[in-house]
Specification:
Number of helices: 12
InterPro entries: Acetyltransf_17 (IPR041380), Acetyltransferase_Eis (IPR051554), Acyl_CoA_acyltransferase (IPR016181), Eis_dom (IPR025559), GNAT_dom (IPR000182), NAcTrfase_Eis (IPR022902), SCP2_sterol-bd_dom_sf (IPR036527)
CATH architecture of the largest domain: 3-Layer(aba) Sandwich
Bound molecules: coenzyme A
Strand order of the largest sheet: 1-2-3-4-5-14-6
CATH topology of the largest domain: Aminopeptidase
Distance between the termini: 19 Å
Binding site for acetyl-CoA: 110-112, 118-123, 146-147
Domain N-acetyltransferase: 23-192
Radius of gyration: 24 Å
Shape: globular
Number of strands: 19
Subunit structure: Homohexamer; trimer of dimers.
Largest sheet: 7 strands, mixed
CATH superfamily of the largest domain: Gcn5-related N-acetyltransferase (GNAT)
Strand content: 25-35%
Protein name: GNAT family N-acetyltransferase
Number of domains: 3
């Protein structure tokens, strides 16, 4: 996807709905420093953050320069230059099963001022973002959520989960293979030059990750405000393979009270190979003078328990939904990924907002590649319930757009949603369709997103 993000006109429905409340819905010119700074300040306030220092404002101004930035303004308030609501969005690749990427639309910075809450402002903005995503040609929209109860109503579903992984240092005895490469301490500025390429490779091999933008690497490496206490705490390590080629990096800090053992904490580990992933984990869990290691936003399916003699050295907490997916174009979304088994499945999707509603036929070949077609319901036959296949003989499932988003990356099996009464098989399929859907949608890796956006 490449086009002028600002060329998409403001959504007419949102303009009208908000105008009826005396509010102005505007595209923010990110070159207008005063307007963009006011938007950043509203975003900080919306997330209950401290007022930003100039260095944070400058960082955010650079990040939003590559985004579509919108605000809602109330001319009647004391400071009408500060928006009462914010949202930003941009096109991104999302890694999907089969080592492929789908065109997605990332939505971020959704805030509404506490003075203007529960009047339908977020609703107007979120519905407009679905239109923006479609105008941009995205197959689906993605976000990470501060609360799990907000976005389901707009068709988003939790598609990946993340967890905090704790490792008890005293019980860490490594039984994994010895790697031929080495871990080096490196300066953040030096790593920064190769970080984008390593991050790209790490994202490409992990279903559920989205493309990294330059600013997130600066922030992860502590380069946004290098003299701040939190940046100075960061340590950067790089793993080079036996040929001396960098294959991954991690950023960690050791939290510790004077004279006490510390806790290693990390939230950024980018590995382009399994070997790099193992060795960076090994480095982190084999530190001395620490009691434990804490990995944030880790996969719920880490290989770590299989690398330690005592898998009970590991405990997992804070398992929660992380990436939310909202399918907009089922044909493009379903055709973008690879599947676990060959077969033909009819999929009937309902969608309160209409975007993804319809009957689709997913035909997967022996190599896991898909052809997807939207089927005219009048031509579909076989079940008499509206769910069938173009050929009339394929098994079929019925589900809402929310459930489609949940199963899309393979993060939950369709049969689990069937047990919850949220996915049904067509009468003619008698459960066969659910079993086939399970095998088709299963990915090689448990999907995982390791950043907030
Ligand atoms: C979340 C937030 C943006 C909602 O804004 P809002 O303008 O008050 O929301 P709306 O009035 O448009 O409400 C839309 C719907 O979402 C529901 N909703 C809104 N906020 C909710 C919340 N925090 N939890 C659960 N439901 C919520 C409303 O009840 C409403 O439901 P309905 O349309 O089915 O009746 C606002 O509360 C906020 O800024 N929160 C702090 C920042 C934040 O958490 N942002 C989300 C980032 S991921």
């Amino acid at each position: 996807m490449s086009f002028d993000l600002r060329a998409i006109p403001l959504d007419a429905t949102a303009l009208r709905t908000l105008a009826a409340k005396g509010l102005e819905y505007r595209l923010v010119d990110t070159n207008d420093v005063a307007a963009a700074t006011a938007w950043v300040e509203a975003d900080f306030r919306g997330f209950h953050n401290a007022r930003p220092r100039q260095v944070s404002v400058d960082y955010d101004l650079a990040v939003i320069a590559d985004r579509r930035v919108q605000g809602v303004y109330d001319p009647s308030i004391a400071d009408p230059a500060i928006p009462v609501a914010t949202v930003s969005s941009w096109p991104t690749g999302l890694s999907v099963p089969g080592g492929r990427s789908v065109d997605a639309w990332a939505v971020s910075s959704v805030t509404v001022s506490p003075t203007h809450r529960r009047r339908g402002i977020a609703r107007a903005l979120m519905l407009a973002e679905l239109e923006n995503a479609r105008a941009a040609g995205a197959a689906l929209a993605v976000l990470t959520a501060s609360e799990a109860t907000i976005y389901g109503r707009f068709g988003y579903a939790p598609a990946t989960r993340a967890a905090t992984v704790h490792v008890d240092r005293r019980r860490t005895h490594w039984i994994g293979p010895d790697a031929p490469g080495r871990v080096h301490f490196v300066a953040a500025e030096d790593l920064r030059t190769i970080a984008p390429a390593l991050a790209r490779r790490a994202v490409a091999r992990t279903t559920g990750e989205i493309d990294r933008w330059p600013g997130i690497l600066d922030r992860a490496l502590g380069l946004v405000d290098p003299d701040s206490e939190s940046s100075r705490r960061k340590r950067v390590v790089r793993y080079d393979d036996e040929h001396g080629n960098p294959q991954g990096f991690a950023v960690f800090q050791v939290l510790r009270d004077p004279n006490e053992h510390g806790i290693v904490e990390f939230d950024f580990l980018a590995a382009a190979t399994d070997e790099a992933e193992r060795e960076l984990w090994r480095f982190l869990v084999e530190q001395d003078f620490v009691t434990s290691v804490r990995g944030l936003l880790r996969s719920v399916d880490e290989p770590l328990p299989w690398l330690l003699e005592d898998p009970r050295a590991i405990t997992v907490s804070d398992v929660a939904d992380h990436l939310w997916v909202r399918v907009l174009d089922p044909v493009a979304a379903l055709a973008s990924r690879r599947y676990g088994t060959a077969g033909t499945l009819a999929i009937e999707v309902t969608d309160p907002q209409g975007h993804a509603a319809g009957l689709y036929e997913l035909v997967v070949d022996e190599r896991g590649r898909a052809e997807v077609a939207r089927i005219d319901p009048d031509r579909a036959s076989g079940t008499g319930t509206g769910t069938g296949s173009a050929s009339g003989s394929a098994p079929g499932i019925r589900l809402g757009v929310h459930e489609l988003g949940a199963i899309y990356l393979g993060g939950v099996r369709p049969s689990v949603l069937a047990r919850a009464g949220r996915v049904a098989s067509s009468a003619a399929s008698a459960g066969r369709a659910i079993e086939l859907a399970d095998r088709m949608f299963l990915g090689q890796r448990t999907p995982h997103l390791s950043i907030w956006f």
